[in-house]
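Weekly modeling sync, notes
Attendees: S.R. (lead), two postdocs, one rotation student

Agenda item 3: backlog of single-chain predictions. S.R. asked that every request posted to the team notebook include the full sequence so nobody has to chase files. The rotation student volunteered to paste the first one in as an example of the format we agreed on. Action items at the bottom.

Example entry:
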Amino acid sequence: MKAIHYISIALLLTGLSRVSFAQSFDFGGFIDSYHAVRLQEPNDFMSSRSRLRTEIRGAKGNSSFYTSLNANFNSLLPDRSFVELREAYLEYAGANWDLRAGRQIIIWGVSDGIRITDIIAPMDFTEFLARDYDDIRMPVDAMKLRFFNNNYKMELVFIPVFQSFIYPTDSLNPWNIFPEAAAGPELVIAPARTPETTLKNSEFGGRFSFFLSGIDMSVVSLYTWNKLPVFSTSFSEGNDTTYLVPEHHRLFMAGLDLSTTIGSLVVRGEGAYFKGEYYPSDFIGSSNYLISRDVIRTLLGLDWYPGNEWTLTGQLSYTSILKYCKELSCEQHNVLATLGISKKLLHSTLLLSTFGYMDLSNKGFFNRTSIDYSLSDPIHLCAGVDLFGGDSGMFGVYKDNSEIWVKVKYSF
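Predicted structure, as returned to the notebook:
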C-alpha cells in the first residue's frame, strides 16, 4: 500500500506540473544495478540490488518544486526492497533571499567524506561506506531560509522531527554492526530512546558565510541530537544474553570552515566544538553507563589539480575528547586521514579513481578503487574493489568484508 501511495503522488505531481507549469516542467532520473562478491571464502554476495530513481522539477515565476522517488529491490535483504520518497520540497526565491520547505538534503562544511560540521543529514549505513556517499547521506524534513548577496550568505535551518542513522543489526546483513554477536551470547537490542516529537525537541541552527578576497569562510552553529546512537550495555546473570539500549541525547555544535585557492591548489579547513557527546564507560559488574564529554574535531584538506584531468586530494582529521577520564572505553585522541587520486582518459569517457580512509589511531583502513566508463552519454559501466583492514576501530569490524563489485547505470 505504501508503494502505491508514493507512486500515486508521483503521478499526481506529474499531471499537475504539466497543467500548471507548462514549459518549465522537467522529468528525469536513472536506473542502476549493483552487485558485489566477497574476495575471500566463501565468496558470497555482499550486495545485490537495483534501483529506479525518478525526479520531477517544476517552476512558475519565483516558485518551484522538486521531488524524487526511489524504487529499491534488494535480493539479499528483503526488508530493503521498498519505494521511498527521497526528496520533496517547495521553494520560493526573492531578490536576495529564498525559502525551501520539505524533505531535502542539507550539506554543510568543506570536508570530503568526513563529518565535521556536516551533521544535519543522518547517514544510511546499511552497507557502511561501500556505496556512493551521495546515497549514504539521508534527507531530512526541514525549512531552510537563506539571505545572500555578493559578499555573504546567511542560512537558517529548522528541523522539527528527529531522524536517526540507519544502522544494520540484522545477522543476515554482512554489514551488521555487531558481527561478533553471531558467535557470542544472544543479543537483544531494545527500542531506541529517541526524542518525542515536540516543538522543544526540534533542531535548529544557522550558517553564516562570507566571501573575502581569495578566501571563503563560514561560521556555523547547530542545536541538534546525536543521530548515530550510543549504546549502553548490560548482561544477564548467566552472561548468556547481551542487552543493548540505543540512546540519543541533545548535542550542541559550533564550528567554522574555510577554503582558499592558491594556483592549482585548493586548501580547506574545518573545525567544530561539540558539547554533550556521550561515550560508553568500562563495565562495572554486568553493565556500563554513558559518560558525557565535550569534543573538538578539526580537519585540514588539500586538493591539487595539476592539469591533464588529474585530481589529487588529501585530508587529515583530528578528534580530541576533553576532560578525558580512564573510565571511558575509548581512546582520547583519534586521527583519520583520506587520500584520493583520479584521472580521466579517452576524451573524458573513462574515469580511474581510488579513495581511501586511514584510521591512524587504530591502524585500520578502507579503500575503494574503481573504473567508470561512459559507454554512451546515458550509460555508465563501473567496476571496482573495496578493501578493508585492521584489527580494531570502525574499519577493523569489516576486515573480512573486502569485495569486488560491478555497477551499471542508465540516466534519462
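Discussion: group reviewed the output briefly. The mean pLDDT is 92.
Action items: rotation student to repeat for the remaining queue; S.R. to check formatting next week.
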